[in-house]
Amino acid sequence: MFKESYSIIGVMSGTSLDGIDLAHIDFTIKDSKWNYQILESETISYSQDWLNKLKVAVSFSEENLIELNKEYTELLGNIIKSFIERNSISNIDAVCSHGHTILHQPQNEFTLQIGNLPKIAELIKEKVVCDFRVQDVQLGGQGAPLVPIGDRILFSEYDYCLNLGGFSNVSFEDNSKRIAFDISPVNTVLNFYANKLGLNYDDKGKIARSGKVNSDLLNELNALDYYQKSFPKSLGFEFVKEIVLPLMEKYSISIEDKMHTFTEHIALQTSSALPNKTGKILITGGGAYNDFLIERMQFHLPKIEIIIPDNKTLEFKEALIFALLGVLKLRNEINVLSSVTGAKMDHSSGVIY
After folding, report:
1. CA-to-CA dists, residue 140 to 104, 110, 304, angstroms
2. Among candidates 79, 22, 23, 24, which has minimal Cα distance to 50?
3. How many CA atoms lie within 13 A of 255 on its CB side?
4. Of 19, 142, 302, 344, which one is least surrounded by beta carbons within 10 A?
């Protein structure tokens, strides 16, 4: 007999490198309907040293990656442990952690999220559910996106769930199947140019707003192969590093114009990704604070009602959903949908330490 309530810590580190999101969540299930409440939550920023490491780790040798994984597991374990202590959280059913993606190459049957070594359970002294992507890739899937099952279970009242993080991804129901895929890079590119101006990010999109569109660059971006592919499909930082940035760097235009053009590109790709341009869309992730980007999306999707939720859901939705994936794994229930990832079958993914 399964429990009807769970006290879970959800942990997520995304490709935009904003930091490590931690959320203490109460889940309840009644008559097959899940509800959640986000209690204590916090984002712990990376030190400059860690930021530098994580930005270049995609080029590390295998030996350096093994070492990095050990160090990061230790860092993550200690951060989770102090979050639990600081908030005096007790009676935890599990800590469910995504880790941090360094390499994502499903075409080579490979994905690596660091911070998922067994040592993490020793450090925290709690049950840990983690490493949610590897099994899906082994089953022929993209290993991403994994959030859509959480969208279906927790946010079914919306026609679309859109997350604007390092990359944007969308999920929606189509003929009783959940469909989801990565749309385009977002903060991985916008933050790269904000960093060049000595800023961590472009506050509310003010810098991008001050620039203008370069049509040649916009056309080249929109013509990239990825956008012509049908789903399931997913993006990794390799796409930004090897394709997007080299293309943008060919243009001798101001950073403001590059950011303005890329914002327009994100809005256009979002619009073309949605099969039906009406209904309600829930937008979460750091990009939801980018007023200029949201305005451009609304411009290209005039018949869509854009909903930005309360701050906790907006900022911690991915930590919330990885917490749910962990609970489903503990219950041995499906937590990855093959309609989304392209795997051979729906399955219950993750490892329990």
Report:
1. 13, 10, 34
2. 79
3. 16
4. 302
Element of type H or E holding 64: helix 62-86
For 165, phi then psi, to 5°, come to: -115, -135
For 94-159, list the strands marked E by DSSP. Answer: 94-105, 110-114, 128-130
- All residue ranges of the chain with pLDDT < 70 are 1
Phi, psi of 10 (to 5 degrees): -100, 140
Give backbone dihedrals phi and psi of 38, rounded to 5 degrees, phi first: -85, 120
Predicted pLDDT at 187: 95
Radius of gyration for the alpha carbons in the chain, expressed in angstroms and rounded: 19
Count Cβ atoms within 10 A of the Cβ of residue 50 and give its class: 0-12 exposed, 13-18 middle, 19 or more buried: middle
Q: Reduced to 3 states, what is the DSSP secondary structure of residue 342? A: coil
3-state helix, strand, coil in the chain (%, to 5): 45, 25, 30
pLDDT of residue 231: 86
Residues 40-91: tens digit of each pLDDT: 999 999 999 999 999 999 999 999 999 999 999 999 999 999 999 999 999 9
Tell the residue number behind the tokens 């341009």, with chain if given: 277
Strands 167-174, 160-164: pairing is antiparallel
Alpha-carbon span 12 to 28, nearest angstrom:
21
pLDDT tens per residue across span 125-143:
999 999 999 999 999 999 9
pLDDT for 326: 98
Residue 338's CB is within 10 A of a number of other CB atoms, namely 19
Output the six-digit token pair for 220: 């080249």
Mean pLDDT of the chain, nearest integer? 96
Name the residue among 329, 41, 289 with its Cα closest to residue 163: 289
Partners of 28 in beta bridges: 5, 35
